[in-house]
Design goal:
16% of the residues lie in helices and 24% in strands. It is α/β, with parallel strands linked by helices. It starts with a helix and ends with a strand.
């Protein structure tokens, strides 16, 4: 009589337990299922979690002098919750306030200048805040020039010239069109 025939008749394996391979596979499946649940649960957070700020420990009050002889037993001090301390704000000076832009200035924005739709003879000057960008569309590489390269950062890609005004000052941007050159004075504040 072999193992298989005795198992079929009695419903039990020899020695009363299933083979070890089946138990190992079941344990592996269970571990895999638990791992899948844990990984899936951590990915369900709505937003990333950041650690909470840590308050530095407050210095303990030191006792100066000896304890009074009349006190039989010292009473333990309970730690009291102290409100968080704010660092003192430095006094504000009048120069710390940003100066308001002139009403004609556009601010630190991107100004799109499409050459196919713009009459350059009518555009004489512009005003930007530092960080503003003049984007010129529809022109070849190296055609747009500036007189103060130290005040700007330029880039060209696919017929578009971006001129970012990185420092305050006055820059003359020269754009050629139809055999003429058109200067545009840009004031950067």
């Amino acid at each position: 009589m072999n193992r298989r025939s005795s198992t079929v008749r009695t419903g039990l394996w020899p020695m009363g337990e299933p083979p070890r391979r089946a138990r190992g596979r079941a344990a592996a499946r269970t571990a895999l299922a638990v791992l899948a649940v844990l990984v899936g649960a951590s990915a369900c957070a709505d937003r990333p979690v950041s650690p909470l700020p840590v308050r530095p420990p407050t210095p303990a009050a030191s006792t100066v002098g000896a304890a009074s002889p009349t006190a039989a037993s010292p009473t333990p001090e309970r730690p009291t919750a102290t409100p968080p301390r704010r660092s003192p704000t430095p006094p504000r000076s009048r120069t710390a306030r940003p100066t308001p832009l002139p009403s004609a200035c556009l601010g630190a924005v991107r100004y799109d200048l499409v050459l196919a739709e713009t009459e350059l003879a009518l555009l004489k000057s512009l005003c930007f805040a530092t960080g503003g960008v003049l984007r010129i569309r529809g022109i070849g590489p190296g055609l747009v020039t500036v007189d103060r390269a130290d005040l700007v950062s330029r880039s060209y890609e696919a017929g578009v010239v971006d001129i970012r005004f990185v420092r305050a000052g006055t820059v003359v941007v020269t754009i050629p069109q139809d055999g003429r050159t058109y200067p545009i004075t840009v004031v950067v504040v």
